[in-house]
Amino acid sequence: MKVLPDETSYIFENVFTHLPEPVIVMDKEFRILQANNAFISRCNKPASDIRYQSFLKMIQPELDNDNQLRKNLYTELIENQSSQFEAYVQTGPDQGFWSVIDCRLIKHNGRIFFLSVLKELTDHKEAYLSNLDIEKNKGDFENTDNLIQSIAPDGTLLSNNKKWQETLGYTSEELRRLNLTDILREDQIPRCFKLINRVRSGEKCDLIETVFKTRDGRDVFVEGNVDGYFEHGKLLSIRCVFRDKTKSKSLEETYSQLVHNFPVPIYIKRNNQFLFVNPSFEAMTGYGEQELVDRDGLFLVHPEDIPFVQKTAGRLPRTNKSASYEFRLIRKNGESRWVMETIVSISYEG
What we know:
Layout: H1 5-18, E1 23-27, E2 32-35, H2 37-43, H3 47-50, H4 55-59, H5 68-80, E3 82-92, E4 95-108, E5 111-120, H6 122-137, E6 147-151, E7 157-160, H7 162-168, H8 180-183, H9 189-200, E8 205-213, E9 219-231, E10 234-244, H10 246-261, E11 267-270, E12 273-277, H11 279-285, H12 289-292, H13 306-319, E13 323-330, E14 336-343
Antiparallel strand pairs: 1-2, 1-5, 3-4, 4-5, 6-7, 6-10, 8-9, 9-10, 11-12, 13-14
């Protein structure tokens, strides 16, 4: 028997409506156009109240038009046709559920739509929260000067300690509305989501540096360790333990500016390769920073003076003192000039 077009439409509409998993169709602005019975039931509200609601605002209630989540998700769907991520879907005050959201791009009659299937993770999240309670009871969660936070794989903030709240200026009530993109300085966002992908593959990342933004817009420089919490091989959360390095970073930047603007030529080398040169050193040698960094410092020394410079500089790490000596420096234009150099060995932990 031949199925007529109207019958086909009716059949597919019924399949969509009665699928056991929550399913929604959205426009390119992520507004809900159609929801099946499972999604409507999960939201516990009439379908008319759901239609045209922003689905992303159900994930991030404080979402604005410039939110990074919207931009990232739209770009990924256009480029890759699909995206899968975990999020807490807030269906009402103090109501919601954790879900893996499988989102697909659909093009029809020249228009763009997004189809999302939601697979609940309630049991897995309860396992995570149980583990979090155990962690808090250890005493190292609150009784520490470290900033501790746990985030979902999509960047949603799950928990943080008192020191984190005091430093960044947010309350525990605001936590559910925050995503990693809301607390990172904008230039740090792409780098941190790459870090999440490394954690997703099972890697533990140590000595990570990044910059948070406080509620009132101040930069907080932090350094710490990041690792994942897995349940049955699935990444449920990411634990971050950071130390506030803002004061030392500010001091570091102050010294950096002093060295950069000092009228005396200064360089820093490791394993005899240039790591840093200030403008005065560039002017003296005739070479630019890009031409000097990572090059062996001996290329500036007159060939006849190289053995003497190597011998003198080689003794320095063993004596742990400074040393001054003269040698002939070869500038970029081939000119040779005598210079007096004072070198100091710098040692630091690690």
